[in-house]
Amino acid sequence: MALTWACSSLRREDPLIRPKSRAQTSLARPVTLSGRGVHSDTPARLTLSPSAADSGIVFSVDGADILADWRSVDATQLRTRLSGEGASVSTVEHLLAALAGLGVDNALVEIEGAEVPAMDGSAGAFVAALDEAGIAELAAPRRVLRVSAPVRVSDGAGWAELTPAGGGLSLDVEIAFEGRIGRQRRALDVTPETFRRELAGARSFGFLRDAERLWRGGLALGASLGNTVVLDGETVLNPEGLRYVDEFVRHKMLDVVGDLALAGAPILGAFRSFRGGHALNVALVQTAMRQGALELVERHVVAERPAASFAIISPEQSPS
């Protein structure tokens, strides 16, 4: 069915379970992936390596270090691009989603090329790489960003918002397209388990009718049936079909996880969007940070369920 907006898709998939550790994490050992960029169609090779506590996710490209941070974003059309020190790295969202979804706080991403490889268009290959590398705890407490006040941004009919909520990060995402996709809505509490099971395998998608226009704009030059779900009218051209009946909204949720990671720490709150995308996701993070609606706190109590205690970190304690 083209329309998968069903009541069952709106229920929370799992009870929220907090990570058992209050410690920051990094990788246990380096791991390398290679492929081609979906927009540039150029080869790319990246190595994910362990890094120290409070270093965050840093991309090392062309001799420059670019922090995965909301202030580094310089493009959001069909992908999220970061820049700094005269260099840039594009299409970071799926890798950032895998790191955030599995709870990796710190990593060095050394990349040869200007774009993160597309792999199969999902975060699945990055999750597999992180599993191969292993996740290690560090001798530093985890810091999180608690939504302390509602924030909303809009662009025409589309909008995105963050509101305070107990527990961790919850997503409620709705998309609306003509034809085969229709309206789809899904809600999910994000944990490593739900991220793996429900979001990591959802692929990018696009429409055959848009291909020439995107190529003229220097985008989607490397898009193929191997890394994109392609629709021609009502038909999915990929021989294997869809991985989920609502793969389209799941992929939008995957993008949200990656874009919210640009806040610099896990967000505790409720995210909701309608007809969103990278531009709205990033604008929401930027607005929330500038308005002081995300409060940096340090978790002091290890808990299996949402109850936990926090301490507010003063500005001079905050990582730069």
UniProtKB/TrEMBL annotation:
EC numbers, comma separated: 3.5.1.108
Keywords: Hydrolase, Lipid A biosynthesis, Lipid biosynthesis, Lipid metabolism, Metal-binding, Zinc
Coiled-coil portions: none
Positions that bind Zn(2+): H94, H251, D255
Names of required cofactors: Zn(2+)
Annotated pathway: Glycolipid biosynthesis; lipid IV(A) biosynthesis; lipid IV(A) from (3R)-3-hydroxytetradecanoyl-[acyl-carrier-protein] and UDP-N-acetyl-alpha-D-glucosamine: step 2/6
Active-site residues annotated for this sequence: H278
Catalytic activity: a UDP-3-O-[(3R)-3-hydroxyacyl]-N-acetyl-alpha-D-glucosamine + H2O = a UDP-3-O-[(3R)-3-hydroxyacyl]-alpha-D-glucosamine + acetate
Source domain of life: Bacteria
Residue ranges of the region described as Disordered: 19-44
Membership in a protein family: Belongs to the LpxC family.
Function: Catalyzes the hydrolysis of UDP-3-O-myristoyl-N-acetylglucosamine to form UDP-3-O-myristoylglucosamine and acetate, the committed step in lipid A biosynthesis.
Protein name (database record): UDP-3-O-acyl-N-acetylglucosamine deacetylase
Name of the gene: lpxC
